[in-house]
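#struct-help
A.M.: can someone run this one for me? Single chain, 280 residues.
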Amino acid sequence: MTGLTRRRALPEAKRSRPAAPRRRPEMGVVLGWLVPLLALALGLLAWEVIVQLRDTPSWFIPKPSEVGRELVTSRALIWGHTWTTLQEMLLGLALAFLLGVLLAVAIASSRLVERSVYPGLVASQAVPIIALAPILLIWFGYGMTPKVIVVVLTCFFPIVVSMVDGLRAADTDALALLRSMGASRWQIMRIVRVPTALPSLVSGTRIAAAWSVIGALVGEWVGASSGLGYLMTRSASQFQTPRLYAAVFVAAALGVTLFALVALAERVALPWRRAERRGG
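D.P.: on it. Structure tokens below:
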């Protein structure tokens, strides 16, 4: 075979080579949900079997079936306390998001604000929230206000830090171009800095969403008349352990659900992020 014939045959051989099969995106989504659900089911089954074989009393460690039965029989009671905690979480997270974004913009826009506020913001995280909750209880009473403030204090920091980092990660060439065209600080912030910071902001909000349930429960543990944290302390003092586990399960479900909702909002508002992750 001559060189010209080989060169002609090579592309034909490449064209005749079968393409590698690609896994459908739907299959990846199914596996992404199936694997953790299967692991959860196996863990619950092992828990049920071990407790049953060791004949552990339910006041010490209840079986998952007992916790599930408690979720059904006490659903009205649990839902009432869940609704209180959910309101505290949502209101506190919304306020933390609003205040965090505004403060992050101020920090990224002014060196004076950064030097005066940012160190105190970082130092505030050294004070445990559980130590501040009794003080807020004295100031604001046993209503919803101190719980919402605790949620705000819990969720505020990751939103501010992630937003500031995102604002500072703006492309320097784009910033220089806008400045050379006479753009104002607000125009630069709106056109370049804020769009660049959105992925970081969403990441910080996901963390804050998961932490919001912690803030609400801490506030309720210190002093409350309703909420999942109040239900936990009351159930523990009365040795109603299945109800205690049921309240813990619902609280965990609230945190996971809120985290998933923020992730869903990211997929809707920032569709290019999903394409970047697939490409990576």
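A.M.: thanks! The mean pLDDT is 83.
D.P.: also worth noting: The longest helix spans residues 185-222.
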